[in-house]
Design a protein that fits this description.
- The protein is α/β, with parallel strands linked by helices.
- It is built from 3 helices and 6 strands; from the N terminus they run H-H-E-E-E-E-E-E-H.
- The relative contact order is 0.09.
- Strands 1, 2, 3, 4, 5 and 6 form a 6-stranded mixed sheet that branches.
Length: 192
């Protein structure tokens, strides 16, 4: 019975110790998250992410023979991101140049498992020519009522894009099936 009495006296002490450890872990997580969010608002984080983002993108683009270059990235992160000076290359060289891409997110919606994109603004994209891509080795995905033809968008989050804005797009007349003389008539203007 003495052993049982000692165990009863130690339980509250053990519970207090476990509670303190749990509070310490939660506090540490909050501090790390806060420090991470503060870091995202620094110019140093912009530089680090400007160097890292093309690397991640190029890993995904390499199998298609594509390469991305980025001049800079700015915030305030994480809810507002602007990419400056995007260039896409294939094996023949530059084929797409974009002055800037602005993305605004509603991060609070992540709690309801929704990636809410308030705005995607693509500023002054210039398609120089169509890219040269390797032949596709995948079979087309079956058409579904939800995803449309050939798309398989199984994401862990729902995706919502409120506004997509393409600003001053430039495409060569030849890609539109027109010659420069066809496009230079009195009532014709270049698309944009």
């Amino acid at each position: 019975t003495e052993l049982l009495m000692n165990a009863r006296r130690s339980l509250p002490r053990l519970a207090r110790i476990l509670l303190r450890v749990l509070l310490g872990v939660v506090l540490t997580l909050v501090l790390v998250l806060g420090a991470g969010l503060l870091w995202l608002r620094t110019s140093w984080s912009d530089q680090v992410l400007t160097e890292a983002l093309p690397g991640f993108a190029n890993d995904a683009l390499a199998p298609q023979g594509l390469h991305l270059e980025l001049d800079s990235l700015s915030g305030p992160l994480p809810g507002h991101l602007t990419l400056h000076g995007l260039r896409l290359f294939d094996t023949k060289g530059l084929f797409l140049e974009i002055e800037d891409v602005e993305i605004r997110l509603s991060l609070g919606e992540l709690l309801s498992r929704t990636l809410a994109v308030d705005l995607i603004r693509v500023g002054k994209p210039t398609l120089i020519r169509l890219p040269t891509l390797p032949p596709s080795t995948e079979q087309a995905a079956p058409e579904t009522a939800q995803n449309g033809p050939g798309l398989d968008l199984r994401l862990p989050l729902a995706l919502r894009v409120d506004v997509f804005f393409l600003e001053q797009a430039s495409v060569p007349w030849s890609l539109l099936g027109l010659s420069a003389s066809d496009a230079s008539g009195p009532n014709k203007q270049a698309p944009g």
